[in-house]
């Protein structure tokens, strides 16, 4: 069943009730990427307060599907467009939606008595009968892509001198001139924003970029994963610090993540232009093109979320001292230095990709006090008998806290052994 059919089949009674409303105050489109809201500025502000959700303003192009739907729904009234990526608001409006298959559409009015914005059930787009086809799905996808453009410029200048080396390390030479591709695609999308058409000549100059961009993105992400695979959480603190330094500096993890963001944005821009081309030249294939583009965005989002989770795992497991390592002060300082650098780049990557991931509270090194506490908890009453043994040094505490013995070996408590020796 198509997206339009899914929407149209849900709660038609509400559609009829809404259609009779004298004036629509807001239009809301929600899918697995986020929620687009269109309406007067004061209505959007009230909506944000009512649902306690921040919305970022997003410009729409005259040729965008959303702009055409807006012109019909609001009858020429001045409206603004805002977007929220992957928030609780999205889950309220897209409940029961399956990623990549369901987009919900809502026309919302104010209560005549209270002025409060009222949310109606999912309804069919008003222009569906006029031949819009999968207009709602396309509009939601256009907004999901557009909402990510404003974060990209800051990543371009930071990595210019090392692009060739990063591509070589990642075996991603097919990505080619990252800057040239991004500038070219940005100009093409800006032309659409200004109301220009995407000519067949313009499309022919960029049509072949899609495969190279996608391959390059996957190579860059795979390179980042490979760097993380070189880290051994069971190694000593000093070795772990050296491994982390190699990943950050020799492996250029920071630059790889930044270039990954640029390459993905280029891929999203290309997908946006591809949809325009299909809509113009092959409208009978538009729905399947929307489905494939949505699948690409979903796959990229999931892969980046997994990468971010893996990076945070490194912060929590590889870059901190356990209670049994609390006495490794020099190695701890080196780990702290590299951990702080890694934490900053992870948070920047999450923000640039608008990943909806819980905030990281921050790992920290175990202290000698925690090592003593762990030792007392492990030994119980025997800790008093072995106190003279413990006093000989922190390294003995570490062995006691986290003894590394093969399965089946003698696991006699050090305190008990100390009693026999004394």
Describe it for me?
The chain starts with a helix and ends with a helix. With 422 residues, the protein is of the alpha+beta class. Helix 10 (209-229) packs parallel to helix 13 (286-317). The protein contains 19 helices and 6 strands. 39% of the residues are buried. The protein has a 6-stranded antiparallel sheet.
The structure class reads alpha+beta
Order of helices and strands: HHEEHEHEHEEHHHHHHHHHHHHHH
Average pLDDT, rounded to a whole number, is 74
Which term fits the overall shape?
A: flat
How large is the count of helical segments?
Answer: 19
The major pleated sheet works out as: 6 strands, antiparallel
Helical coverage, percent range: 55-70%
Distance between the termini: 80 Å
Number of strands: 6
Quaternary organisation of the protein chains: single chain
Q: Please state roughly what percent of the residues sit in beta strands, choosing from under 5%, 5-15%, 15-25%, 25-35%, 35-45% or over 45%.
A: 5-15%
Sheet with most strands: strand arrangement: 3-4-2-1-5-6
- What is the C-alpha radius of gyration, as a whole number of Å? 28 Å
| Parts with pLDDT < 50 across at least 5 consecutive residues | 1-22, 96-100, 125-133, 405-422
Primary descriptors:
6 strands; 422 residues; alpha+beta; 19 helices; 57% helix
List the topology elements:
Blueprint: H1 3-8, H2 12-19, E1 26-30, E2 34-39, H3 41-51, E3 56-57, H4 65-74, E4 80-85, H5 88-93, E5 104-110, E6 117-118, H6 135-146, H7 163-169, H8 178-193, H9 200-206, H10 209-229, H11 237-250, H12 253-281, H13 286-317, H14 329-352, H15 368-379, H16 382-385, H17 387-390, H18 394-401, H19 414-421
Antiparallel strand pairs: 1-2, 1-5, 2-4, 3-4, 5-6
């Amino acid at each position: 069943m198509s997206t339009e059919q899914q929407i149209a089949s849900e709660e038609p009674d509400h559609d009829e009730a809404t259609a009779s409303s004298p004036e629509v105050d807001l239009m809301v489109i929600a899918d697995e990427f986020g929620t687009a809201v269109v309406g007067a500025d004061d209505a959007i502000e009230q909506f944000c307060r009512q649902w306690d959700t921040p919305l970022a303003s997003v410009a729409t192009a005259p040729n965008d599907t959303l702009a055409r739907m807006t012109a019909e729904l609001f009858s020429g009234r001045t409206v603004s467009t805002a977007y929220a990526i992957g928030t609780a608001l999205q889950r309220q409006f897209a409940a029961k939606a399956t990623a990549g298959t369901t987009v919900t559409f809502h026309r919302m009015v104010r209560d005549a008595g209270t002025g409060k914005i009222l949310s109606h059930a999912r309804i069919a787009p008003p222009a569906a009968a006029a031949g819009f086809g999968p207009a709602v799905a396309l509009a939601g996808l256009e907004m999901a892509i557009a909402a990510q453009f404003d974060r990209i410029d800051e990543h371009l200048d930071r990595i210019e001198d090392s692009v060739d080396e990063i591509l070589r390390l990642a075996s991603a030479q097919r990505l080619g001139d990252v800057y040239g591709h991004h500038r070219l695609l940005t100009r093409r999308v800006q032309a659409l924003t200004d109301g220009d058409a995407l000519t067949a000549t313009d499309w022919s100059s960029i049509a072949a970029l899609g495969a190279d961009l996608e391959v390059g993105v996957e190579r860059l992400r795979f390179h980042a994963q490979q760097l993380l695979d070189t880290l051994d959480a069971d190694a000593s603190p000093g070795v772990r610090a050296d491994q982390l330094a190699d990943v950050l500096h020799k492996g250029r993890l920071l630059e790889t993540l930044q270039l990954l963001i640029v390459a993905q944005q280029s891929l999203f821009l290309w997908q946006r232009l591809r949809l325009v081309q299909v809509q113009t030249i092959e409208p009978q294939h538009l729905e399947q093109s929307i489905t494939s583009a949505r699948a690409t965005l979903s796959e990229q989002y999931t892969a980046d979320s997994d990468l971010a989770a893996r990076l945070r795992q490194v912060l929590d497991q590889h870059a901190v001292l356990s209670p049994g390592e609390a006495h490794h002060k020099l190695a701890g300082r080196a780990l702290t230095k590299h951990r702080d650098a890694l934490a900053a780049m992870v948070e920047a990557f999450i923000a640039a990709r608008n990943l909806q991931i819980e905030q990281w509270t921050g790992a920290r090194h175990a202290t000698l006090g925690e090592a003593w506490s762990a030792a007392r908890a492990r030994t119980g009453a025997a800790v008093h008998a072995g106190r003279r043994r413990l006093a000989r040094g922190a390294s003995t505490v570490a062995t006691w806290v986290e003894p590394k013995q093969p399965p089946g070996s003698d696991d006699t408590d050090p305190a008990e052994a100390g009693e026999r020796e004394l």
